[in-house]
Amino acid sequence: MSPRRKIDPEAQPAFPQPLRAPRRWGLPIAVTLAAAVAATAIVVCALVLSSHEDHHRATINDAVAVGYVRSFMTEFTSPDPFHANDYADRVLAQATGGFADQYRQNENEILIGIARSDPTTGTVLDAGVSRRNDDGSVDVLVVTKLTSQSPDGKVHAARANRWVVTTRQEGTQWKISSLIPMT
Prior knowledge:
Elements: H1 26-76, H2 84-93, H3 97-105, H4 107-116, E1 120-132, E2 138-149, E3 156-170, E4 173-182
């Protein structure tokens, strides 16, 4: 049997506990707040970057669409009566959707009208994005100037027209899906 010792409650312990300093809460709180602020800053930066990239992509898309529409409208408003079939084929190659269907239905009347007309030169005075549609197409407002002269070369007729052209990207190529003259 082992001897039992009676411990006097008033006596000093044989192995005293080291005294603890009071816990300091300032440093853990400061580190936690700094981590929260850093995480918030990273999230805000990521959102700003994403918004910037979306805006940049939309701006480039708009510039390409406007450039394509400018090129198309210059060609569209410059029919050559001596090469009416080639003109109609080029326009039809750049058409899609309802515009292509409508152009195919009226192709004979269009060819006859072009063959009977005087040579016309079309220029685009200005073009800009009117609206971006939910389906990815872009509406472009275009102002064109058509200049024609009579076969004797004396009479010059010039007139300005406004158009709303809807263009959409099919694969890597842009095509015209709607062409509406404005009055």
